[in-house]
Amino acid sequence: MDIGVLGAGRMAEALGSQWARAGHRLLVSGRDRGRTAALAARLGPAARAGDFAEAAAFGEVVLLAVRAEGALDVLAAAGAGEGALAGRPLIDCVNEVAPGFVLASDGGPSMAARVARAAPGARVVKGFNLCHEDVWRMTPPVFDGVPLAVPLCGDDPEALETAGRLVRDLGCVPLAGGSLARAGLLEATAALVIGLWVGADEDARAMLPPLSHASGPPAAPGAAGDQSVPGSR
């Protein structure tokens, strides 16, 4: 698969290195030509460097991996507003977390919604936004024998399947996160868990029970199940 990468920072390198190892071809792009060329060299013979428009034109799928404050400008430079990404999966891994570990959007449209608006016709998928870049460098990210799960939000089944393939190429498991309208929930989850991990040095994984106990302890054989929604009482 040909992957265009909008960005030449740490997330671009972490994900790009794994995808190059899996046999995909990449064109990475950034504002600093020297830094972008250096990243392509580190990724190996499967990668080359270019500008944002070249990365957009190259990719069967495109990854947006830049800081939130520059995301829309990068999409504009890639020609997204003129339809340069129309018809193709656009994976958005951007987090917009402000000081205090809150969403900078402050109740406004999600980052993913603004990305979709800035790239008309692109098949946007939100994902890869919950973990530090060094987690994505692990081969594979497995914890206590369980592969890392990666929630994906999007409206296009084929784009979600493409993103899911890239998740599996990392040794992870894709999770169906729902439509793109739910991407804001995924972004808010990032703000919450980053605040727990970084701001409070707490184990965010410990706050959820396993699936077997999602609705409480399993019912005894023959007992009527409790179908209540968590927090509804």
Task: Record the SSE blueprint.
Layout lengths: L1 E5 L3 H12 L3 E5 L3 H11 L3 E4 L1 H7 L2 E4 L3 H10 L11 E4 L4 E2 L3 E2 L7 H8 L4 E4 L6 H4 L5 E2 L2 E2 L1 E6 L2 H13 L3 E4 L6 H17 L34
The H-and-E topology, N to C, reads as EHEHEHEHEEEHEHEEEHEH
Shape designation = globular
Helix proportion of residues, in percent?
25-40%
Distance between the amino and carboxyl termini: 48 Å
- Class computed from helices, strands and strand pairing: alpha/beta
Which features characterize this protein?
globular; 8 helices; 233 residues; 8-stranded mixed sheet
Structure in words:
It is a single chain. By secondary structure, the chain is an alpha/beta fold. Helix content is 35%, strand content 19%. It has eight helices and twelve strands. Strands 3-2-1-4-5-8-11-12 form an eight-stranded mixed β-sheet, sandwiched between helices. The chain has a two-stranded antiparallel ribbon with strand order 6-7. Helix 4 (68-77) packs parallel to helix 5.
Sum this structure up briefly:
With 233 residues, the protein is α/β, with parallel strands linked by helices. The chain contains eight helices and twelve strands.
